[in-house]
Amino acid sequence: EAQLVESGGGLVQPGRSLRLSCAASGFTFDDFAMHWVRQAPGKGLEWVSGIGWNRVSLGYADSVKGRFTISRDNAKNSLYLHMNSLRAEDTALYYCAKTDYCSASSCPFDLWGRGTLVTVSS
Amino acid sequence: EIVLTQSPGTLSLSPGERATLSCRASQSVSIRYLAWYQQKPGQAPRLLFYGASSRAPGIPDRFSGSGSGTDFTLTISRLEPEDFAVYYCQQYGTSLTFGPGTKVDIK
Hints:
The structure holds 2 protein chains of 2 kinds. Chain A is mainly β. Chain A is built from no helices and 11 strands. Chain A is globular. Chain B is mostly beta strands. Chain B is built from no helices and 10 strands. Chains A and B meet through strand 5 and strand 10 of A and strand 4, strand 5 and strand 9 of B.
């Protein structure tokens, strides 16, 4: 069964860094682009960043550009999000998501993890 | 950036009733790049439709997706108890954006 499991969240002070991980299993990881999506408490979904199967970045939301870096290790079936200069407004549940049903390289997300909670507070 | 607006914000209905959810885009979205997701409390979102009207595996046929251009619709023909949730539309053709969601709750 295909599965995504996020880890690395926690309580962190403003201005500090954190690295999130997403472990994939049950599918051929390096066949698919992957993304991070976040959800602030009680709020909607916000796309954060994506990366192609070949490790080429697919972009960042303006709200995290220059502070977050997405990467992947296909040998380890893992996706990462390096978060620097964290702010209170980065507080959210961070989901990793797998793509499929692509059309011209544009893809929805067909599999999501359960998320890892990041809380930025002093 | 393409901004998605969903209406209504909350839809209060009874089981067995029909639900019609709207997603409107600030500029035209190809039908190939519009998705719908369902999210229940404490759970991750689940893909319902991609390409505006292509049903994801395992999604019951009481759910249907339609629309084109800037106006898209998710319809649930007869609400089952498990359908009460929040529904998000997403466009994935020009970067990626989600709508703010429509909550379908029990009347």
